[in-house]
């Protein structure tokens, strides 16, 4: 940017008491009202945090070094920043704000750091996992809208760990994707596949996030679960997971993903299911009904909750493209 064309307000003699208002002032020249608002609130809370904690230079440098280490260990198959967001509860909070769910619809959960775009397309009934050590299971699902109508042609992205609690991308010598697939619901909103029963496992704790958990005296374990992501034009994007009820980490998930409505139980296959789906009698079966929310339903609910939440904070806002900005009119 040409400095001669920048309209920079005069600033000097900045102190603890006036640094915040001046930083907001110089950041408030963007033509994007949402960017201006987000930066205003970010600076306000960051500066208040420093003042309230009397943050020391040594502590701030330690924080910068920590964030640098988080970035350095991140790669295309390991996103340590997502992990950090997860263990701070921020991932779940943002998802809950951006993808509100009406009653009786499927609740969201965290994406996690190991989603991959290289999953293979599979037909109904295919085996997603080739782990011979895992306990086989059959997963039978339906997808409906909030009015109980089946939703066909939904793209479903599914992924889980192997029986040792590792995702395929965690193996340096892997030959291709495993424990993950993409399929679409049929005309009746059904989809089904074969997998292995999920197992509990620790999130990667050999990096800076793991060291932080250790300092906080927190364990890194997640309860057994299987990830699902749903996409279809006209419907709100849903990222969720199903968690095994009774898992020892059900109430202490390291990334806060468990919700009562997402807890599931497996039951043994009877003769009818075994014959219809070509599985052994007594093998584990998971049945679940997913409920998607339309874009309009989600948008209306998001707007309603945004207005109320910010009004409760005493902030007068208006919505621009569904996002709040200060209402100065």
Task: Give structural notes.
Residues 32-105 form the Catechol dioxygenase N-terminal domain. Keywords: Dioxygenase, Iron, Metal-binding, Oxidoreductase. This is Catechol dioxygenase. Pfam families: Dioxygenase_C, Dioxygenase_N. It comes from Letharia lupina. The protein is α+β, with helices and mostly antiparallel strands and 329 residues long. The protein has helices at residues 19-26, 33-53, 57-73, 80-87, 90-98, 208-215, 271-277, 295-312; strands spanning 136-144, 155-159, 180-184, 190-196, 201-202, 221-222, 225-231, 238-244, 263-264, 267-268, 284-291, 317-320, 323-326. Strands 3-2-7-8-9 form a five-stranded mixed beta sheet, with no helix packed on it. Strands 4-1-11-10 form a four-stranded mixed beta sheet, with no helix packed on it. Strand 7 and strand 8 form a beta hairpin. It starts with 18 loop residues before the first helix and ends with a strand.
């Amino acid at each position: 940017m040409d400095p001669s064309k920048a309209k920079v307000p005069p600033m000097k003699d900045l102190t603890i008491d006036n640094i915040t208002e001046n930083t907001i002032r110089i950041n408030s020249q963007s033509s994007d009202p949402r960017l201006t608002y987000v930066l205003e609130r970010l600076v306000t809370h960051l500066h208040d945090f420093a003042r309230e904690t009397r943050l020391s230079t040594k502590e701030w440098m330690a924080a910068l070094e920590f964030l640098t280490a988080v970035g350095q260990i991140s790669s295309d198959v390991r996103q340590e920043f997502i992990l950090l967001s997860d263990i701070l509860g921020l991932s779940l909070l943002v998802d809950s704000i951006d993808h509100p769910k009406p009653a009786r619809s499927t609740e969201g959960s965290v994406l996690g750091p190991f989603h991959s775009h290289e999953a293979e397309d599979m037909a109904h009934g295919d085996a997603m996992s080739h782990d011979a050590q895992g306990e086989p299971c059959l997963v039978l699902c339906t997808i409906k809208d909030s009015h109980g109508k089946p939703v066909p042609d939904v793209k479903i992205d599914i992924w889980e760990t192997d029986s040792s609690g590792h995702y395929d991308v965690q193996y340096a010598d892997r030959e291709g994707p495993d424990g993950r697939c993409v399929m679409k619901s049929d005309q009746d909103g059904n989809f089904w596949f074969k997998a292995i029963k999920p197992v509990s496992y620790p999130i990667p704790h050999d990096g800076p996030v793991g060291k932080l958990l250790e300092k906080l005296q927190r364990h890194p374990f997640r309860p057994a679960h299987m990830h699902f992501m749903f996409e279809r034009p006209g419907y709100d994007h849903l990222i969720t997971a199903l968690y095994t009820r009774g898992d020892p980490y059900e109430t202490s998930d390291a990334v806060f993903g468990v919700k009562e409505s997402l807890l599931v139980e497996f039951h043994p296959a009877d003769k009818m299911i075994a014959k219809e789906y070509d599985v052994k009698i007594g093998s584990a079966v998971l049945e679940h009904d997913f409920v998607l929310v339309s874009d309009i339903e989600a948008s209306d609910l998001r707007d309603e909750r945004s207005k109320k939440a910010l009004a409760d904070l005493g902030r007068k806002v208006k919505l621009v493209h569904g996002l709040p900005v200060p209402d100065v009119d």
